[in-house]
Amino acid sequence: MEPEDEIYENGGEQPARSKPIISGEQLDVEAYASLYKDRTKVARLLFIADHCNNEAMQLEALRMAYDEIKKGENTQLFREVVEKIGGRLGDKYGMDAAWCETVDRKAELKKERLENELNSYRTNLIKESIRMGYNDFGDFHYAHGALGDAFKSYVRTRDYCTTSKHIISMCMNAILVSIEMGQFTHVTSYVSKAEQTPDSLDLITVAKLRCAAGLAHLETKKYKLAARKFLETGPELGSHYNEVIAPQDVATYGGLCALASFDRTELKNKVIDNLNFRNFLELVPEVRELINDFYSSHYASCLEYLGNLKPNLLLDIHLHDHVETLYDQIRHKALIQYTHPFVSVDLRMMANAFKTSVAGLEKELEALITDNQIQARIDSHNKILYARHADQRNATFQRVLQTGSEFDRDVRSMLLRANLIKYDHNLRASRKL
Amino acid sequence: MGSLENLVTQIQGLSGSIEDIAHLHNILRLADESLHSESSALSAVLDQVDPAKHSLGYLYILEAFTSGPVSKEQALTLVPILARFINCCDAQQIRLAHDKFVSVCKRFKDHVLLIESPLRGVSPMRTAVRKLQTTSEHLTTIHPDFLLLCLLSKSYKIGLSVLEDDIFDVDQPRDLFLYCYYGGMICIGQKRFRKALELLHNVVTAPMNVINAIAVEAYKKYILVSLIHYGQFSTSLPKYASSAAQRNLKNFCQPYIELATTYSSGKIAELEAYVLTNREKFDNDKNLGLVKQVVSSMYKHNIQRLTQTYLTLSLQDIANTVQLGSPKEAEMHVLQMIQDGEIFATINQKDGMVRFLEDPEQYKTCQMIEHIDSSIQRIMTLSRKLNAMDEQMSFDPLYLTKVGRERQRFDFDDFDTVPQKFPI
After folding, report:
1. How far does the CA of residue B302 sit from the closest CA of chain A (Å)?
2. For residue range B57-74, what is the model confidence (pLDDT) as tens digits?
3. What part of A 348-377 touches B (C-beta under 8 Å)?
4. What residue of B is the nearest CA neighbor of A410?
5. Helix B98-114 vs helix B55-66: crossing angle, to nearest 10
6. Would you say residue A96 has pLDDT above 50?
7. Interface membership of B378 toward A (CB under 8 Å)
8. Which of A207, A328, B235, B397 could form a disulfide with A237 if both were Cys (CB 3.0 to 4.6 A apart)?
9. Each residue of A150-206: pLDDT tens digit?
């Protein structure tokens, strides 16, 4: 291959560049799980167990989930996990009925105690104690998996909040529970509520709120907004929000959403030149590499990274439903960006650059042209793509004539209808007389 | 008998000036009853009266003469008499007796249909339409009858010439529905789909309190023609359509709406299967021919879409994309479309390639300038008409009272009532 072909090709052997490609090796369940804590850890482990195809990984995940649940007090979840394990891990991971009973009994007692306390506080009408009572109730329900009740209790503290610190803690709790429940409309509303408090928030809370908002947008498929929120998250987040999200996730979600929805200038300004976000990207070097590749038009390697990341991303609890859409959008953007600077493009070279066949490429380009995302036409005989810019003058004439005839037609029918209504009205008037 | 002779002399005498004619009109109105009772003696009287000069009198006598049921042989004799009258009557005189003339023409149409030669009625009816119209924008009650005769005798071009006039004044809404429906069918016959769509659209969106069968049939054809011409159809009627239509029309046209949804999927095999299963329903509505046209239009729209994305394409690929059988069929379709002027392309038979070209229209010729200029003039006239109508409505007393009652009151003077009549 001659050296000048490298400019167009971007594919083929590249011995000079050393790419530390993280291959599609299996997700290290233990390392992954250690990034999180509390309930989200369990939820993620269960999700991995449900969706991975590998039995060893599945059992590993279930085992870790079992251990984690035993540290808490959620018997319902415990029963579910035991069922899923189905005795495959031996006796040590079987159904521990005794433990369940102890936990349930303790829960009953605690619930009674909390209720009594709350009632006494309510009769005494001490605002702060009532608030703390409801808060404790919320924590109790959350620990036992009754998410709906937890949410209600947390929301009830709202009436008894006096300082903005109280309001913020209420919002954070509500957000946490809503994320677990999957009700992201609540998340958005509580995030905005928290951001509206008159006192200035400390940076960690701000970062947490941004992450929560980003997650909410991601779930509602507003990828651009999600990307913006994730990119605005400060590096102070660290591991303070591990009960919801890890900084690696911030990097991955933010990077992928930005790549799928930003245009080139925005990508450069907000992602590549963003010093804060660089801290996050350091944690997931593949994402950083693939963004850089996309920006410098090395599409083959960019798509290769994406392909490698895909199986692990499919195991992620929040990204699972969106992986396909995001990948399609990124691929389309790559195709559009490739053809943008040229007047004519040889489809064979382009197919090589994207590591696909000419026929497949033709189909993809056809879809993009029909969607009006690329202004070009395909010469199928010689396999060349020609850019095509509409002749403004002719198009204007055409539009003018069309608008004129539409106006003509619409006004005539309107006058006709007005006449009919007038006739009808006159008829009725004459009948009344 | 004596009164009849009296009448004849009066007719002959008083058909001179305008006041005489008005006087004659009154006499005739009073004598109408007696005329109807003596219908047997009227044929002799008819010969005494001249249809051209004494049109009004002739009309009254003729109307009385032709009332009542008529057999086929009688119709044969009557048709030439009626035709002659219509052709040579005086337009001003007959406009005074509008209803009588309309009923005479309607009977003429019935007779012509009875003797099964609608072609004989086309030309007289056209003259009748022109004579009855006050202006060329006026829709009379006999317009639809004329169009019906054109349809039945397949003389579409004559029908088209009448359809070219825009109408704004309508006698009866029912006439409008029939006129637009028949007019739409004539345009479909001549493959003027755009005008057909316009006419059918008028029926479907006309103000009506209760939907009628004409609107339902028109809606069915509207769906089919819209698919042929535009390749798509939207089930939502515009806001100005009557609420009765918006709610109920779809219920009566279910198979057609499903046809439209199958069409939008773009798969020919599905469309053909659907047509085959519902063949009977389409046949009953006599729309089977149109439905077949819809199916063949699908190929056309698919090929047209290809011109947007490809510069050259092999015939084999066209056949595959559009789901045709072989490249030969694809070549035939493309050739037909080039001839009809629906796409611009050249076929290279040696390579089996089709090269799509841009629209060669450069909008620089004299004809184009003339076309644009006449369109501008037309629209200016329309604008003026619209403004005149608006002005006229703004000093209509009924409108003023209604607006006056509901206007905002900011000042003491606003509480005065709007004057209902302006004392002079």
Report:
1. 12
2. 777 777 777 777 777 777
3. 366, 369-370, 377
4. B198
5. 50
6. yes
7. yes
8. A207
9. 888 888 888 888 888 888 888 888 888 888 888 888 888 988 888 888 777 788 888
- pTM exceeding the 0.90 threshold for the entire prediction: no
Joined tokens for residue A164: 């903005």
Rounded to whole angstroms, the Cα distance separating B188 from B199 reads: 11
Identify the three-state secondary structure at position B358.
coil
Residues 6+ apart with CB under 8 A from A427: none
Contact in structure between A188 and A213 (CB atoms under 8 Å): yes
Chain A residues in contact with B201 by the CB 8 A cut-off are 413
Q: Write the burial class of residue A312 (CB in 10 Å: 0-12 exposed, 13-18 middle, 19+ buried).
A: buried
| Residue B356 phi, psi dihedral angles, 5° rounding | -90, 135
- Determine how many CB atoms are found less than 10 A away from the CB of residue B49: 21
Interchain pair A413, B202: CB under 8 A = yes
Residue B353 structure tokens: 């390639």
Structure tokens at B167: 């109408």
Q: Which residues contact B339 (CB under 8 A, 6 or more apart)?
A: none
State pLDDT tens for residues B282-304: 888 888 888 888 888 888 888 88
User: Tokens representing A279?
Assistant: 């801290």
Q: Are A76 and A104 in contact (CB under 8 A)?
A: no
Flag whether residue A113 sits within 8 Å of chain B, measured between CB atoms.
Answer: no
A260: nearest Cα among A206, A187, A313: A313
Residue A389, number of CB atoms within 10 A of its CB:
8
